[in-house]
Amino acid sequence: MAKSGKKSDAGKGAAAPRPFGGVRRATSYDVAKLAGVSQSAVSRCFAPGGSIAPATREKVMKAATELGYRPNALAQALITRRTNLVAVFISRLTNLHYPEVLAELSRQLTDRDIRVLLFALTAESEIDLLLEQVWRHDVDGIISAARLDDEQIAGIRRHGIPIVLYNRTAGEHLTPSVWCDSAAGERDLVDRLLAAGHRRFAVVAGPQDSAVGEERRLATLARLAEAGIHDVPVTRGDFSYASGREAVATLAGAATPPDAVVCVSDVMAIGAIDGCRFDLGLKVPEDVSVVGFDGSEPAGWMSYQVTSIRQPVRRMTAAAVEMLLERIEDPTLPAERRSFVGAFVPGQSARL
Amino acid sequence: MAKSGKKSDAGKGAAAPRPFGGVRRATSYDVAKLAGVSQSAVSRCFAPGGSIAPATREKVMKAATELGYRPNALAQALITRRTNLVAVFISRLTNLHYPEVLAELSRQLTDRDIRVLLFALTAESEIDLLLEQVWRHDVDGIISAARLDDEQIAGIRRHGIPIVLYNRTAGEHLTPSVWCDSAAGERDLVDRLLAAGHRRFAVVAGPQDSAVGEERRLATLARLAEAGIHDVPVTRGDFSYASGREAVATLAGAATPPDAVVCVSDVMAIGAIDGCRFDLGLKVPEDVSVVGFDGSEPAGWMSYQVTSIRQPVRRMTAAAVEMLLERIEDPTLPAERRSFVGAFVPGQSARL
DNA sequence: ACGCATATTGAATGCGAATGCAAATGTCAC
DNA sequence: GTGACATTTGCATTCGCATTCAATATGCGT
C-alpha cells in the first residue's frame, strides 16, 4: 500500500527513470495515479467485462498509453490461476515431421492468445524433470507429441492439468488425444500395392514403443494377412534416414527379396529408397516399390517423390488445440479421441 | 498480515481438499504448518544460500516431500523479478535448418534450468504482437533467429531485456549476436570451385532482407571478382526447395549456362540439384557443380550429398545461450559478436 | 422531492514466495 | 556467570493485479 508515498519518479512525467539497464515498467498503480483513479479502476478497464464508466475508461486508457502500461502476466496469473501458457512436449525435433506439427501448434495457440512453453525432448532428457517444471509453472494445459508413460500420465491427471496427446496413446488410461488413423492409411497403401501385383512384401517398422509405428506395422500386416500373405519380414528402424537405409540392406539379404517395402515413415522411406538405389543397385519403383507415411516435405522432392499418406497436420493440430481449450474451460469433459484419415499421395516411388 | 487467522483448513492437516478437477497445490505455508516452522524458513530451505539450521531443513524437507510441495514459479518470479524464461523467436520452422537450432537451444537452456517460451513466426505473424506478449511475461532474455527491424530492437533495448541475435544483424544498433562467418565459408567454396576449373558461375541468393543470405551472396561475388570473374548472374530464392529448383531453370536460360551454382542454403541447393537433373536433364556434378550452405541433415542424403559448409550449430547455440546468460547477470556488458567458421563438407554435388 | 434500483467507484484483501530486520538462541572466551 | 558475537528464526512487508464489499452517484417512477 502507500503507493502515494512513492516520489522517486513523480516529477519526471512520462520519462521513466532507468535504474541500470532495466526500465521499471509501469504498474496499474502508476496508471491509476496518472489518470486520477484507483488501481481497481485500471484493473477493470483491462478486464473483459469490467464495470467501468466510458469516461473513466477513456482517462485510464490515455494514461495507460502514455505510460506504455501492460498488465503484468505474472501477477495476473498468480491471482486468476490462469497463465495462458500451454506446455508442448515434442520429441526429436530433427525428425522433419515434428517441426511442421510444432509450427502449426504454435500458430494455432498463438492465434488464441496462448503462449507455448516448449519442451523439446532429446534422447537423454528426463521427462520427469521437465514435468517438474511444468508443475511449477502452472501451465493451463499440455499437448504432448512425445511419449509419456502411464505413471507420468497419472501424475499429470493427479495435478489436474488437462492434456491432449498427439499421435500417441497412453496405455490403460483414457486420455484425450488426436490421432491419424494409420490403419486406414496403411490399408489403402497395401491395397494399392496388391492391386498392382505386388506379393513379396517387407515392412520397415518403428521402435516397439512408438504407438503410431506399431499401429502402422500391425495394420499393414493385418491387411496382408487378409490377402493371404503371411510371414512378412519386418525390420525395425528409429524413424531416421539411416535406419531406413540400413533396413533395406537387411531385407535384401532374405531368400526372396521384397518387391514392395512398406515404411512407417517418410524419412525411413527416403532412406529405404536411397538404400535400394545406392546400396543395392535397384531401381525404384521398377525393381521395388517403396511407400512411406506422413507426407513430410522432403518426401515430395523430385529425387524421391515418395508414395505415401499425408497426415492432415493442420486439422489435427487444430483439433488438439480445440480439445485442450475445451478441457481447460471444463476439466470434467470426458476423454475423447479424434481420429483423422490421411490423404493418399501418389508419388513415384511405387509401381501402382 | 494475519496469517495465523486462517482457520478454514486448519483442521484438515495434510489432506488437501480437491475442489473439482484441480488439486490445490501445497504452498510454503502448508509446508511450514506441517513442519512447525514459519513460511520464511520454508522459503530459505529452497533458496540457494538460505540460512537454515540442518535440523530445521530436514523437518521442512520431510514435510515438503510429504505434501509434494514445489515452489510456485509465478510467485517466485513476481517477487524476485526473475522468471527463468527466455523467449525464443524462430522463423520458418519448416525450413529444416531451424529445427536443429531450436532443438539445440532448447537443450542448452533446459540444461541451465531455463524454460523456453517459443515464438514460431509464420509469414503472417505480427512480430509486434508477439513482442507485446514478451513484455507482459517478463522474460529474462530473448534469443532471436528471426528478423527484427531496428524499431523492434530499439523497443527491446528500451525495455531493458537482454537479447542475442542468431545469424542475424540489426542495422545500426550494436546488438549481441552469434554468427556463422559465411564470408569465410563462401570463399572456401569458391576457391575450391575455381581450383577445379570452374569459371561460369551463378549464384542462388536469398531474399534481400536476409542478413546471412546477403553476406553469402556478397562474399561469393567478392571472391569471384578477386579472381577476375564479373557479371555473375544472381537469382533470388526464399530458402525453399521450390525456389532453388526454379532458380536454376532461370539461370539455364542465360547465354552461357553456368557450370557452378553457388546456393546460399542447402535446401535451395537441393532444389537446384533436382532442377538440374529433372528439369534441365543435366548431370550433377558432371555437367554442373552445385554447392550449398548450412549442413542440414537432408543435404547428406545419398541422392544429394551436397557439397557445403556446415554451421557449427552446437557451438553457436552454446555461445548464444552463454552470451545471453552473461547479459542477464550483468546487463551492462557491451554488445559483442561471436563469429564461427563452418567446416567444409565434401559431398558429391560439385566437381572438385 | 423522496425512495429505490442500478451503475461506478475505491479501500482492502489475497495470490505464494522472498527478504530486511529484529528478536531469539547458541557458542565461546574470560 | 557475563558479555561479545555468530547463527537461526519469525514477523511483516512486498511484488502487481483481481476481486469482494461497502459506499457513493445516478436515474427513474410517482
UniProtKB/TrEMBL annotation, chains A, B:
PROSITE patterns: HTH_LACI_2 (PS50932). InterPro entries: HTH_LacI (IPR000843), LacI/GalR-like_sensor (IPR046335), Lambda_DNA-bd_dom_sf (IPR010982), Peripla_BP_I (IPR028082). This is LacI family DNA-binding transcriptional regulator. Pfam families: LacI (PF00356), Peripla_BP_3 (PF13377). The keyword Hydrolase does not apply. Keywords: DNA-binding, Transcription, Transcription regulation. Residues 26-80 form the HTH lacI-type domain. The keyword Transport does not apply. One of its GO terms (molecular function) is DNA binding. The lineage of its organism: Bacteria, Pseudomonadati, Pseudomonadota, Alphaproteobacteria, Sphingomonadales.
